[in-house]
Amino acid sequence: MKKLIAGLCLTVLLASCGGSDGAAVTAPVPGPTAAELLEQQLQGLSLDDFFAESYGALITRSPETVVWLALTGTFPLETVGLDNVSDAYRRETYAMYQVVFDALQTYDRTSLDAASQLNVDVYEWYLQDVMESLPYIYHDFPASYSGFGTQGDTQRFFTDIHPLATEQDAHDYVTRLGAVRRKFQQLSEHLDLQRGAGIVEPGLTMQIARDQVRGIAQGGASSNPYYTSFAGKIEDIPGLSDTDKQELRNRALAAVDDSVIPGYQLLLQTLDRLIASAPPSIGVGQFPNGSSYYAYILRHHTSSGLTAADIHQLGLDELSRIHAEIRLIFDQLGYPQNESLQQLFARVAADSGIIPAPQVRPTYEDLISFAEANVGEAFDIFPSANVVVAEDPYGGFYIGPSFDGTRPGAFYAGTQDAQPYFQMPSLTFHETVPGHHTQIATAMEQDLPAFRKLVRVTGFVEGWALYAERLAWELGWYDNDVYGDLGRLQYEALRAARLVVDTGIHEYGWSFDQAVQFNEDNVGWTSAESQGAIARYSVIPGQATAYMVGMLQILQERQRAMDELGPAFDLTAFHRTLLSNGAVPLSLLGSVVDRYIDEAAP
Question: Residue ranges per domain, the chain?
């Protein structure tokens, strides 16, 4: 693959006129931009080469993504560094997306076979979606708390993702440590520009972020996670002498002292300055162009044409259905009719049994083994990558395997405290098998253009994982586990409630307390759990709506295939079709199922 040239410097010699002895003067002329170079690079390519060249140019704009996915062999990086998050760089990247989109329009879609047409359609959706976000460059909250902000992502990149298998990996790690300060300076500059646009993250979540940033900004280098993770892992690098290891530790310690901690200190100063401007209320609707941004972000996450009003009503309708199903089981168990969902699910937690902290991880591993042993009744396509349970203070998320096979898929689970059993099966099936791991890791191994393997379409990815939870029930995995089934239904109620509270917060101006109370009343979570959920929805608007919208769309398409094919419908073949096509926008899912129906029709 051709490398994208970073820039070109030209000079023009200006000579004096007449017969005088004027001196030659050179004046720099700006070289072509990255977008202009890319436009030249993409000319005259076959469609497959165009996909490879253009997506390679786009993905390498984020070196952290390339390293995260272990794709440096496929998409070589010219330098060792971190993502450039400056406004100028981001706007130039948008210009590159426009170049790729315009070039894609020059290919005659009608002359392509069905598979290539789908490639074009998915790529077009992806490019268009990114370009539509440009007017809202200041509407997200890039320094929010936990893993929702740049600082959390950066820390996990170093502590969990960055390879440390070779001596060169270790040198690269230290080099990248030296880039943290610059990245956080760019982040701080963006936050100031954001404030100039009239947008500041609400104080409720900014305060949490400040406290987390302060912990590193005011801490010592030797106890810093950027250093301690590195210092421990290099022990396993083969061929390093004790002297080499100590030298690397010394360099890493100095880099944390000179770059990481000052970067966090700068970010802390910025947040301290901004907190006075932070609004007390939540919801993006309060900001300039907030309503149009929310409409965009709903399209982005659901990849559908549903409006906020549609989604809000859908959530209310689904909650009525799910509550009725939950009540039937409560009645079978003899639970009181007059207790709240909180009280009733407290009974479920106690009756299902509490798993002691030392047994939480083994219990999750046993559930994965159970799923792997039984999933074959509905699937004949499986990823070669394994999935492991990784410990995390909070847990409840999945990170896919690396492309080079060096890192398995990982289900990050909260394992430090005892947990009620009833919630564990559904969470496991969502994050691992047949959920995220099955879908994401399988997509990575398909014979598809790189962007089809890598683009995460929220509506499909999260919709599939919620569908996997329901599928486990359809396959009879809860037949002898009534409490696990109640855990499934509570999680399904959570996803339905998200449709209501997300739109309530960002479209209808709900207060934090109002959203918390709705979650308590309709999901049965505790006040603390509900507060954590609402804080999350407040800083990443729209994302929480993708789960239920996606699951319902998959179920609808499955039912359509069953109705049209009758006895010729095969669940295994249906799943194979969806998994082998990677994550597609929900607006294109029907065309994928159309192909399955056409091929399966007798």
Answer: 36-136, 146-280, 293-549
CA distances from 198 to 138, 192, 321 (A): 9, 10, 41
Peptide bond into 434 cis (omega under 30): yes
The rounded distance, in Å, linking the Cα atoms of 450 and 96 is 18
Place of tokens 């407290």: 346
Summarize pLDDT for 40-96 with one digit per residue, the tens.
999 999 999 999 999 999 999 999 999 999 999 899 999 999 999 999 999 999 999
Q: Are strands 419-420 and 387-392 parallel, antiparallel or unpaired?
A: unpaired
Residue pLDDT, tens place only, 542-566: 999 999 999 999 999 999 999 999 9
Gap between the Cα atoms of 580 and 443, Å rounded: 6
The span from the CA of 302 to the CA of 125, in Å, is 12
Burial of 237 (0-12, 13-18, 19+ CB in 10 A): middle
Give the list of residues 6+ apart from residue 327 with CB closer than 8 angstroms, or none: none
Residue 115: alpha-carbon gap to chain centroid: 26
CB proximity list for 423: less than 8 A, separation 6 or greater:
487, 490, 491
| 296 close to 484: Cβ distance less than 8 angstroms | no
